[in-house]
Here is the input.
Amino acid sequence: MPDFFNPFSGMVPDRKLTKEELIRVVRLDVAGELEAIHGYMAHADATDNELAKAVLTDIADEERVHVGELLRLLSILTGDEDEFYKKGTLEVDTMAGKLGAAGAAAPAAKEESTIGALKTSKEA
Here is the structure.
């Protein structure tokens, strides 16, 4: 489980962050959001109270939006972050394709089937 040391816990530094420090802080913030998602979903899974489950899941989904915001900020700050994400996505898609894993990405040129297309293919 990530346990990053936060040098700014409870205080603001006496100077502005350097770009490199800001990048590290944003990475720490992403980890915090992911940890929050994990906690909210664990709590939602641990109860039969439908209201609590709905509220906790909704909050977890809001944290997922925060992750997206922070990852976009990180991409802008670093200038090359998206290249690493794309490389990682392609690596997993390649492995999934070799294993025939469910949910493996289809080749880019192939169109996604619609409900109508699925009905038509079953009738054929």
